[in-house]
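Appendix C: a fully annotated inverse folding record. The material below is reproduced so that readers can follow the format used throughout the book. The structure is listed first as tokens, followed by the designed sequence.
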């Protein structure tokens, strides 16, 4: 069954205009998110250093006071250090994903402006991956996976519905870009067939002209030597 493509974007823009608008919006959002990720990483590093320093101080104090290493304060500091490390790794993962999305959005904008579908393929792949991860985060819950937890793994029903809404919106804009991609693919195939037919027609016409010239030359009487 062939998928029916869209003919426009939100019944206001055509596919090309909608794709350009989506590319600009995605570029702005991913750039803003990337800035927030960098700031959050810097803040998380500071918190991690503070927690590590406090943990060392607590261990030294307990060693001096000859307190058992299983003291409640030490356990809390270990849990805080573990949580800070998880948040730091999650932010690093989010930053990498955001950078990839930012680069693919630049390629999408260039491809939509130049009507080059090959530059749209990276964004289509990245966005589909994000959609699949968003859907998985609603059902495959892993409490010890911070990335899945951020997307909705340990969230309540309201946050899950919000993730579902974002996933539906992402799928719509993905389908708009995919429709543009397939439309350009069809146009390129049609143009290739037209060029091939034109070349074949010219070759046939040239062959006919050459054949007629040869026949004309053969039909001319040759001079007789005396």
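Designed amino acids, in order:
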């Amino acid at each position: 069954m062939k998928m029916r493509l869209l003919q426009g974007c939100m019944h206001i823009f055509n596919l090309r205009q909608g794709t350009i608008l989506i590319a600009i919006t995605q570029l702005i959002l991913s750039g803003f998110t990337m800035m927030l990720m960098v700031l959050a990483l810097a803040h998380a590093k500071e918190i991690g250093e503070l927690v590590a320093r406090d943990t060392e101080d607590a261990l030294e104090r307990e060693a001096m006071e000859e307190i058992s290493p299983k003291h409640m304060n030490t356990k809390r500091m270990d849990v805080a250090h573990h949580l800070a490390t998880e948040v730091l790794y999650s932010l690093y993962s989010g930053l990498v994903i955001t950078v990839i999305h930012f680069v693919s959005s630049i390629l999408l904008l260039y491809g939509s402006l130049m009507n080059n579908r090959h530059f749209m393929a990276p964004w289509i792949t990245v966005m589909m991956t994000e959609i699949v991860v968003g859907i998985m985060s609603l059902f495959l819950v892993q409490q010890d996976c911070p990335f899945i937890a951020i997307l909705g793994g340990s969230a309540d029903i309201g946050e899950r519905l919000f993730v579902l809404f974002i996933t539906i919106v992402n799928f719509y804009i993905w389908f708009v870009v995919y429709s543009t991609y397939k439309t350009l693919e069809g146009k390129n195939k049609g143009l290739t067939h037209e060029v091939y037919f034109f070349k074949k027609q010219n070759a046939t016409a040239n062959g006919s002209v050459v054949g007629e010239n040869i026949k004309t030359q053969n039909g001319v009487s040759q001079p007789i030597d005396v």
